Amino acid sequence: MPIYRIALANVRIADTADESLAIALDVIAEAGERDASIVCFPESFVPGYRIGSRHESCDPVFLTHAWSVIDQAARDAGIAVILGTERLDGNRRLITTRVTNADGTLAGFQDKVQLDPSEESVYVPGSERRVFRCGDLTFGIVICHEGWRYPETVRWAARKGAQIVFHPHTEIVDDEHFRPNGFADPRNSFHEKAALCRAAENTCYFATVNNAIAGASTTSAIISPDGALLTHQPYGQHGVLIGDIDLSKATGYLAKRLRLAEG
Fold first, then answer.
1. Rounded to the nearest 5°, which phi and psi values hold at 62?
2. How many CB atoms neighbour CB 123 within 10 A?
3. How many CB atoms lie within 10 A of CB 118?
């Protein structure tokens, strides 16, 4: 199998929905120019994450417009896009990712099924999981809390053939956070250690994607199927992280060996 190039958008949080769209378009163009086949954005990047932030309720007309423009940008750049966003189902608001194929067509949505308790006053949970195809790549998506706290979500995707699981998340930084200098610092919270585990316990790649936030305790990173760190973005630094992954190493071997006890 070929080497496959992916891009992670470790970008600053926008002040407005319009700015989030402008940043997204710049990133898509850059990732395409750098020969990435797919780019993944943080959780709810367009129009912006609601909990603990200044972002207000967004007009669904804006979302429809933003998605259309991003589809065009994906087509122009020849790159697939995993957009952290939200969607409305009637009067129900869901955290989701919207996947655009490299030809600009819609591949589908992966909603956040397992909400953080703090999100339940604003959002409702999704109910289904799926895997996606992009050329030679099969991938799954788990969003923030569900990837950190519910390893079953990643294993489900790996057992369905995902060679990589993308993990868009967003972080609310407070003064109590440890400020790491190195990935998976033992003094830091469990989160980056969990990212290493998600890859190693399933023999698949794991790509976790945060915003560029001052004082962040996690950053965007790509973890190899053996649990080793392949590459990561400097903490809080705005930019596009590029990584080349060897699909032959993503066998899903350990995930497929799972035996469920009866009863």
1. -60, -45
2. 20
3. 11
- Cα distances from 86 to residues 48, 50, 53, 172, 215, in angstroms, run 9, 10, 15, 18, 26
* Tokens found for residue 261: 């006890």
Burial environment of residue 172 by CB neighbours within 10 A (0 to 12, 13 to 18, 19 or more) = exposed
Unique residue bearing structure tokens 């120019």: 33
Cα distance between residue 219 and residue 106, in whole Å: 28
Phi-psi region of 260 (alpha: psi -120 to 50; beta: other; left: phi over 0): beta
In this prediction, residue 55 carries a pLDDT of: 55
**pLDDT in the model for residue 260:** 80
**Quick count: other Cβ atoms within 10 Å of Cβ 64?**
10
| Ranges of the chain whose pLDDT falls below 50 | none
Place of tokens 């199927």: 225
**Rounded CA gap, 253 and 86, in Å?**
33
CA distance to 34, 176, 227, 248, per residue, from 2 (Å): 17, 43, 21, 8
Contacts of 39 (CB under 8 A, 6+ apart): 6, 7, 8, 9, 27, 28, 31, 79, 80, 81, 82, 240
What integer pLDDT is reported at residue 70 of this predicted model?
98
Distances (CA, A) of 39 to 60, 208, 241, 248, 257: 24, 12, 9, 20, 30
| 3-state DSSP assignment of residue 80 | strand
